[in-house]
Amino acid sequence: MSYEAEYKQKLTTADEAVKVVNSGDWVDYGWCANTPEALDQALARRTDELKDVKVRGGILFHTPAIFEREDAGEHFCWNSWHMSGVERRMINAGVAYYAPLKYSELPKYYRNHIEHPNVAMFQVAPMDNHGFFNFGPSASHLMAACETADKVIVEVNKNMPRCLGGFEADIHISKVDMIVEGDNPAIGELPAGGEPTEVDKKVAELVVSEIPDGACLQLGIGSMPNTIGQMIAESDLKDLGVHTEMYVDAFVDIANAGKITGAKKSIDRFRQAFAFGAGTKKLYDYVDNNPAVMSAPVDYTNDARVIAQIDNFISINNAVDVDLFGQISAESSGIRQISGAGGQMDFVIGAFLSNGGKSFICLSSTFTSKDGTVHSRIRPTLAEGSAVTDTRPQTMYLVTEYGMVCLKGMSAWERAEAIISLAHPDFRDDLIKEAEKMKIWRKSNK
Q1: What is the pLDDT of residues 212-228, one digit of tens each?
Q2: Relative to the CA of 118, which of 210, 275, 356, 370 has its CA 20 to 30 Å away?
C-alpha cells in the first residue's frame, strides 16, 4: 500500500477520532506548539460523556477547550510538565497540577515509570514523501509518548514548521492510528518579552563579558536570558554554538547577526541542537527546513554527559528567589507554582563539567508586589514550601545588577557574604542580621 493510500485509509474527522477516549483514561496532548486544536475542541464536545480524564501536556498558549466550562474539573484534569501563565490560572481554578521533573529524564518517565497514555494526540507537520510526520519544534519527549500510547492520533497543520532532526523528530505513518486534518491555525506564539529594563541590561553586561569566542550557548526562558541573547547579537563575539533545551527568538537574532557557526563544537558541529522551540513567527520561520538547526529528544540535549563533551559551555538561566545558602528556586514562591524545573539542573551540572564551562543564574535583586511593596529576591532562607531547583553545591555563578559571584567551594559564611553583596543595599543589613542568627556570618566580615 502506498503512503498516500494509507493516509486516506487512516484519515478521519476530529469528532470520530476522539471517540477512542474513555472515562478514566490518560490522554497526552503533546507539548507546547504541538498542543492539539481541532482534537481538543472535539473532545470538549464529549465533556458530558466523560469523567476523570487525565491529560498531560505543558507550556500552554491558551486554555484548552476541554477546560472552558465551569464544571471542567469534574471531567478533566490537567497535568503539566512545565507551566505557562495559562496553567498558573488553571491551577488556581483547581483543574491543573504541576508534575515535578528533571527534564532530561522525561522520555524515561514515559517508557519506564508513569502510567502509559491511552491516547496520544497532538499537532504535526504534513506527511513527507517518505511517510513521516514531523514533530515541528517539539521533538522533546514526543516519540516516547507515541511509543507507549495505545492509540496515536496526529492532527496535521500546514503551518507547523518542519524541523530537521538528528533522531526522534518524526513519526512514521505506520505507527499512527488516525489522522485528522485541522483548520491549520497559526502556531501559538510566546512573546520574547517587552523592552529590557536597566536591571536586565546590567545583568546582561556582566554575563556577556564572561563569554569567550567559540562558546556554546544555552538560554533559559524569560526576559533576562532574552536580553542577554540580544546583547550577544550586538557584541563582537564570533564562532558561537548552540546546544539548548529551549530554542528562543534570541538565538535567531544571534544567528542572523552572523555570530553562530558551530565550528568549535566537538559534537553536532555547525548545527544548533534543541529539544523544543517556542517564540514568535520569526522563530518558526527560521527553524522551518533549516539544516543549521537540529531538533532532538530531550534525553539527548539535556543529558549532562552530552553537555560536558562541549568545551566552553555557557548556561544562562533565571531564578525566582535565592537564599543565603545558595539554594535556587526557579519554579515556585512558597507553595505557589510559577513555572517548572525544566532542564535548569541538567545544564547547571553539565556546564560545570564542561572544559571551560560556566553556569549563570541571573535575577533582579528585588521585585515589586501588586501593592507597591518592594521585596528582596535574596532571602535568608527560601520561603516555606518553595521548591529547590538547584541545590547549594550546584550553584556556580550568581548574578544580579549589583555584581557576580562564583559560589563553588565557598563555606557557609563565605556564601552568605558573597550573596548579600548582590542584594539591594536597602536589604543588606537585615540579611546580615538573619545570617548572624543562622550562625553563617563571621564578625570579621565587612
Answers
A1: 999 999 998 777 888 88
A2: 275
